[in-house]
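Aim 2, interim progress: modelling of the thymidine-5'-triphosphate-bound target.
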Amino acid sequence: MAAERVIVHVDMDAFFAAIEERDHPEYRGQPIVVGADPKGGKGRGVVSTCSYAAREFGIHSAQPISEAWRRCPHAVFVRPRMEPYAAASRQIRKVFGEFTPDVEPISIDEAFLDVTASLHLFGTKHKFGERMHRRILEETQLTCSLGIAPCKLVAKIASDLEKPRGLVIVEPGQVEAFLRPLPVGSLWGVGKRTRVALDALGIATIGELADFDRAELTRRFGKHGEALWSLAHGIDDRAVEPADDAKSVGNQHTFATDTADPRLVASTLMELSEKVAYRLRHHGLRGRTVTTKIRFADFTTLTRATTLARPIDDTPTIYRVASQNLERVRMKGKKVRLLGVTVSGFDTKARQLDLFDQPPDRERDEKQRLLTDAIDSIKSRFGHGALRQGTTLDRPPEPDDEAK
Ligand code: TTP
Ligand code: MG
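Predicted structure of the complex, ligand included:
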């Protein structure tokens, strides 16, 4: 039998709100709500997250901001600032790297680590957990919660149990007992429809699912039923897949009709640059290489790449370099079928480099940063169609871009 794996799930506590509290000592201890502008209770949009003090009023992520206002009008309401959140995300990723190279980031504030091979360097699981807490706190002045278990499923559930600053360890022999009392909805792949169907069979908890006849589940739900039965028994072989597998972030767009219109090409390039920049920032990534891909009507495809001295994640720079790449392609009135923009060459030391690089124009950089933050917060609330930085030329909306 294969050796037991040791999987850690790390999730930051009240991530955006904790960063606001850290950066604004005057907010300390007050309920903090990060999200849309409440506009005295008339605001639209939702809560991104809130501090634990605010949760006591029943405020939570994705709740209408107007309801949050109603529940606690004296809370501190702030707009999201993606830049410091992305910076903290990069910092925690760097800390994870001190513990194992097998890190799979799941979102901006959360990751799986496979520490099967490295745990012995840190002693017991408990010592490992305490050290992770301490290192994250030292580097970011933020707290996190940890679940340590033999598989992803259990590690993820465990990290959520004792938030904030939780450390829950589930030993291999305890997995089934740990899972049994939990609602079936805690299992991966159990959405609302499955929950209703299971409920009709009298299955509400993971234990009840585990006790259910396996063949009968398979008969009713096919492969999905069998997978659920396995999960209910704590059988989850999914590997931690390191982020290094993602070496680039790119988007491409196929025109509804092939085009030779330079304005349409330029504005499409701008939209692609903006999507890529947003995704980079969302994942706390910056890259040094910008690649532009162009496919002509006859399907010939060319790529041009430029590598910069500094890693970047902002729309104007990506757009500028992507355009310069395109200028190196002879178009000669040829019709364009597809355009793509990709950023690669991710630099985990991006923040450090910045400290030594004097920006050429601080004021301009600051303005761009504020604009970028504002756009990110609008997009996170209303989706990508909501707002676009303009190229000098406008164009009518196009069909959805295909993400690569
Ligand atoms: P979560 O980890 O789900 O939440 P959290 O870190 O704020 O709180 P917890 O202690 O319960 O983990 O999400 C991480 C960040 O993602 C969160 O701080 C804000 C953002 N987010 C949104 O913008 N909208 C959402 O609906 C959710 C769930 C999160
Ligand atoms: Mg979190």
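The CA atoms of residues 37 and 43 lie 6 Å apart. The first strand starts at residue 7 and ends at 12.
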